[in-house]
Amino acid sequence: MDIGKDKPLSGRISRRKLLGGAATAAVVLVQTATGKAFQAGVSVAELDDPTKIPGVLPGTVGTRSSFEQPVKKPSPTSSRTPLQDLYGTLTPSDLHYERHHGGVPAIDPAKFELVIHGMVERPMVFTLADLKRFPSVSRLAFLECSGNYRGANDGKITPQDICGLTSQSEWTGVALSTLFREVGVSEKATWFLAEGGDAAVMTRSVPMSKGWKDAIIAYAQNGEAVRPEQGYPARLFLPGWEGNTSIKWIRRIEISDQPFMTREETSKYTEQVGPAKIRQFSFTMDARSIITYPSYPARVEKGWIEIRGIAWSGRGKISRVEVSTDAGKSWHLAALQEPVLDKSLTAFRYLWQWNGGPTEIMSRAVDETGYVQPFYKQLLAARGGNMGYHFNPVTAWYLQSDGQVLFRST
Amino acid sequence: MLVNTIKPFLLAAASATFLATVPHTDPGTVSFETRRTDTLHYPERFGFGKPVSAEKIAAIDIDVRPDGKGLPAGKGNAVIGKQIYAVKCSACHGASGTEGPNDRLVLGDTTSAKNRRVKTIGNYWPYATTVFDYVRRAMPFNQPGSLTDEEVYSLTAYLLHANGLISEKTELNASTLPKIVMPAKKYFVPDDREDGPVVK
Question: What is the pTM of this model?
Fold first, then answer.
């Protein structure tokens, strides 16, 4: 590495240190005189007292502290948000969960086109620039995959493993209703097909009523362009509905008077309830909550513990979250962090003094329609013994007397 | 009447809030959903975007509905489909469609208790048209969109035959495919969950 002309501002960072010596304590960003940031090893002594070394100059793109390494947990088909490592309700965009059926496509925004046709007066095609010219809307909303429950008999399972296919962003785009008007949708239309431009050419049928109500063609996420994993350059976003319906990389919308019965709404994303019933088009995500602290793999000490978590409902606002610290015998109201928003993650907390004895803590969400998050056994009974999609049970954490926190089914 | 011809609607509270709550009882002839997404002086049209040609639509309009709308010309049968399957599909779905490693496509022996919980085309898919639509758009997984319409008809025929739903000789085409009644169709019900306290 030649740093001849491109000298670091601090003369105390030697070339040896830049190359990373044995005494490297951490990798930090170092800014050079010409404004280039690069990583360098800094000795323990320098880290001990940051007041004795000038810091990094302003840069073009911020970075996460090298001491913080929250990561998604990937499998061949999805990647889960590390809920236990996050605070508040906004998911950093690079930690938003992923679920796709044919990988993340590379789409050139200059070539992007959204075609709307079918039962319309004027079949039309919109470029990304066209979409951005329309009046825009922004809203915070959670997105959750409906196949989002896992348990583990040994209890060694994190919130990320249990329900890490839940994330929240601010989505900005054009209301789909605006585009419906632009193309002149027929009054007789009842369903539309949304199709993605990925290798799965993902399709779902969506009732027109949802399209008129609050659907967005989103081109931005948390203030910047939608991430590739979330549908760059534009995606459908359906607040409160199972994630699969919010078709990413949207390329086509066909207006129709019947559903298309695509593979994802027949073979998948349907659930057996009872011996001879398969429930279809179960769009809405039922209310759910999870305690993210304390949770596995945390270890806690007796004394004051602020129990923290998130709650959400696809039916509207969370009206309350109840917390139990005695395995469900008694319940207490948790404090909800304002603002409590429609179809959005809501942070809750409950201050508790643990006496160190083994116990189970759990939370249950109640939404504004009066839906109460069920226990696992209750849900299983209501579905006639079937598990599957839309499984949103109360999750318990067992606190061992040594402070180890373990998952427990309810 | 087309929705886009509706006069711009004045929101009572001229706020920029998306989804401002407007009482459902407002007079008028359009659905409340239409009105409440409107903003002040919303024009009938913005004039952004371009008309799209029929050819351009045809090039990407690959969906097939249960009533057969969208099915292309062409035909196929299970005898031919079996050969294509062996070459292009068996590596991932198994020689007989039951072995994997990827999704099981054939139910196999229905008398075995184990198979009753397995979900396949034979016992779970409500429409035969979905097989055509899905295979044409997404399979083979490593070369999606590479099959000809004739190949897809034959592969669909093979998968339906292997699941015991049609004979080996049955010709599938745009008129015969939508007429196949799938055994699982009778089990499908629309979502019956509602707002409120009932857990379903």
Answer: 0.88
